[in-house]
Write a structure and sequence with these properties.
The chain is an alpha/beta fold. It is elongated.
């Protein structure tokens, strides 16, 4: 079957998945753009739903995927990218990570830029972080900007969302140390801290960590930098922290 109309129900469904967080949550699906992400999805066993293609692919798709040829104009209308590629597809959201033991975790609180959230997930995959935990008003990990920034890590790096109360319960249950990144006179130089078996929390660029989360931390850390620099981008700070945890463990 070839889809030629932008009003086709499959095209409308995919476009809505790209644009509507509530619809993603309702359906349990999310949408991706491009063959590179499709290759990552197949490689990591993602459950594909609908695939629209405007040209032949270099990857063999599972028989369970519903594949439709589509005019390039249809894909252009569905994709949020300025220069859409030859394929858009939807797939089932991966199950949230189940965390029950101490490990190497990054906590993102109120990180609202989806590009930063996706970048943190990508970096977590590079440095062996066990899981990324989202809390507060974070961007949706399945926002297309987050998915794209993750460069496929959304299919292979464990992540989950939890409330602060759930995070503190996990800390107590698993014997996990909670460390907050803070521009605080009482914070310790990251190079001098024991970073084994911990979860390091990073807040939004505008406000940092909430007072409630900071007060619950077992320790605070600061990344030393040139005194002329006021702060780091949140995703950059997360990268430095994950590298230091990786280096020490």
């Amino acid at each position: 079957m070839r889809i030629t109309s932008r009003k086709n129900e499959r095209a409308v469904h995919l476009k809505r998945l790209f644009n509507d967080r509530a619809y993603r949550e309702e359906t349990g699906l999310f949408c991706c753009d491009g063959e590179k992400l499709l290759i990552e999805a197949v490689k990591n066993g993602a459950e594909l739903d609908t695939v629209l293609i405007s040209a032949p692919l270099s990857v063999t798709l599972p028989a369970s995927a519903e594949v439709f040829e589509a005019d390039a104009s249809v894909i252009d209308s569905v994709s949020p990218m300025k220069t859409p590629q030859k394929v858009v597809f939807s797939c089932k959201k991966p199950a949230p990570a189940e965390i029950s033991t101490a490990g190497r975790y990054i906590v993102l609180e109120d990180m609202q830029d989806p590009g930063n959230v996706g970048t943190v997930l990508r970096t977590a995959g590079a440095f062996g972080t066990d899981a990324v935990i989202l809390t507060g008003a974070c961007a949706d990990m399945f926002n297309p900007k987050a998915v794209r920034a993750s460069m496929g890590a959304v299919f292979r790096v464990p992540f989950c969302s939890m409330t602060l109360a759930e995070l503190l319960a996990l800390r107590d249950r698993a014997g996990l140390r909670l460390i907050g990144a803070a521009l605080d006179s009482g914070a310790s130089d990251i190079r001098r801290l024991d970073l084994g078996g911990c979860a390091v929390a990073i807040g939004s660029e505008g406000h940092g960590l909430s007072r409630e989360l900071l007060d619950a931390c077992d320790a605070k850390l600061i990344i030393p930098m040139d005194e002329r620099c006021e702060s780091l981008n949140a995703a950059a700070a997360a990268a430095v922290i994950m590298w230091e945890i990786y280096r020490k463990n």
